[in-house]
Write a structure and sequence with these properties.
There is one protein chain. The chain is of the alpha+beta class. The protein contains 4 helices and 8 strands; from the N terminus they run ααααββββββββ. The chain has 2 domains: 50 residues; 128 residues, Quinohemoprotein amine dehydrogenase alpha subunit, domain 2 (Lipocalin, Beta Barrel). The protein has an 8-stranded antiparallel barrel. A hairpin with a 5-residue loop joins β6 and β7.
């Protein structure tokens, strides 16, 4: 009898806990904009208040390296000798990493590169990102690329400009190309 009572008590206790906390999860898929998810509409009000507690707005400077106004999404343009050689979208993250989607390269040849950055002065940042290049026909690796930037964000925080170098190396690490030029960036916002 005692064992049965403990089993029933434990099972009931777990069921109460599960029913209390399970409705907090919400998939969001198929829910209507402006209305809480269906799983939230059926909960007691005190759980709904806890689930919908507003989050604190986090500024880039709250979690980023000091003075990280570079954090965000940017439309970037690379020019060399007055000619645009590439463009794309670069996302600078608060943890000091960066990713770029190149609009000037076909996906078959690889159009994403990853980087790391650090602040070097007031509104000034250096970036080292690396890219891989593939032959579109064979899919074979044909180069590794080092792209270095030194950029300064303007006083509005919505534009940056600076310089870049691109150094390409064949799979045996022999240099196969070097380009220097200017880079500009324009911040992309949620309202654009």
């Amino acid at each position: 009898m005692t064992t049965t009572f403990k089993t029933v008590t434990t099972t009931l206790g777990l069921a109460v806990l599960a029913s209390t906390f399970a409705p907090i999860a919400a998939a969001g898929c198929g829910d209507l904009p402006g209305k809480p998810p269906a799983s939230h509409r059926l909960r007691p009000p005190y759980l709904m208040q806890a689930a919908y507690r507003p989050a604190r707005f986090v500024l880039a400077a709250d979690s980023a390296p000091p003075g990280a106004s570079i954090v965000g999404l940017w439309k970037v343009t690379f020019t060399a000798g007055g000619t645009m050689i590439d463009w794309g979208y670069a996302q600078w993250h608060s943890d000091g990493t960066e990713i770029m989607n190149s609009g000037g390269r076909a996906p078959a040849t690889q159009n994403f590169c990853l980087g790391v950055w650090e602040k070097t002065g007031p509104s000034t940042y250096k970036l080292n990102h690396v890219a891989l290049s593939y032959d579109a026909a064979s899919g074979a690796l044909n180069a590794t690329v080092s792209i270095r930037e030194l950029v300064t964000v303007d006083h509005t925080g919505n534009n940056y400009q600076g310089t870049f170098t691109i150094d390409a190396f064949d799979p045996s690490k022999n240099p196969v190309g070097h380009v220097e030029g200017e880079i500009t960036g324009e911040r992309i916002t949620a309202d654009q």
